[in-house]
């Protein structure tokens, strides 16, 4: 309610921003449109498939797969917030966006990113307990605990995003309101501000420490302990099995944090506009597609559940 009141009193609320998108030749624009549309459809289908499998298959009713299904929800939310309008911008070679819609897009984008930071941390802790303390795993990682942890990740994600949006919305944006990007993100919005950006820069620093570096530190510490524990296993088969259960999550964490840090942490002056857009496309469009592929192709349980559903459909047909 307070956020809405702030928007109503902001002088920029009735103005529009012009999103330039990706400026390129017409044939390349058509190619990008088709590519992004296929990737988006694949992302939605892949993540919906994982959510369906985890919900319906009894052998996937475990904490690890519950968290994977939550990750899939986030991987549907993020591209759905970005890609449809991005496709519209590509066709129109740039398009205007209202201040309210811009803030809404930024809000859900920030919420899904922050949520994923915390969820990946919870998932690394789950793997830590499963490998380093397997005898007490069922008593530590209970179903209720998993639901509470996932709910906390969502609450933190939407709450921190609300803080961001509230601070950005009270800034004054001077004309021309042109954003050389394909969606409303923090960096291009701050660059348009003609009022002081000290508050948002300080806020961004604090939130990066709490929501980015603290979770990343916990993940690194968890995997250091996991690797040390695995190397102590006497059996090579046990080592391979343990590494296999962690490798998918480690790949997802690496892709997510490398692209996110590249966009928000590295100095913007060291990046060209096109490079900045490319990195943004990687984590908003392609990473949500890669996640279900990694978990499905490298996971025997998911493949087994998928095969069972296919066999049931074939028998019914």
Please characterize this protein's 3D structure.
There is one protein chain. It is globular, with a radius of gyration of 21 Å. Mean pLDDT is 85; it is low at 1-11. The longest helix is centred in the middle third of the chain and has 34 residues, at 99-132. It is 78% helix and 3% strand. α2 (26-56) runs parallel beside α10 (273-297), α6 (143-169) runs antiparallel to α8 (198-231) and α9 runs antiparallel to α10. With 317 residues, the chain is mainly alpha-helical. It has helices spanning 2-9, 26-56, 63-92, 99-132, 137-140, 143-169, 186-192, 198-231, 236-264, 273-297, 300-316; strands at 16-19, 95-98, 178-179. The chain has a three-stranded mixed β-sheet with strand order 2-1-3.
Order of helices and strands: HEHHEHHHEHHHHH
Q: Report the total helices.
A: 11
Please mark out the parts with pLDDT under 50 across 5 or more consecutive residues, or reply none: 1-11
Cα-atom Rg, whole angstroms? 21 Å
What's the number of extended β-strand segments?
A: 3
Strand order of the largest sheet: 2-1-3
Question: Quick one: overall form?
Answer: globular
Distance between the termini: 52 Å
% residues in beta strands: under 5%
Helix content: over 70%
Biggest beta-sheet profile: 3 strands, mixed
The average pLDDT value, as a whole number, equals 85
Q: What structural class do the secondary elements suggest?
A: mainly alpha
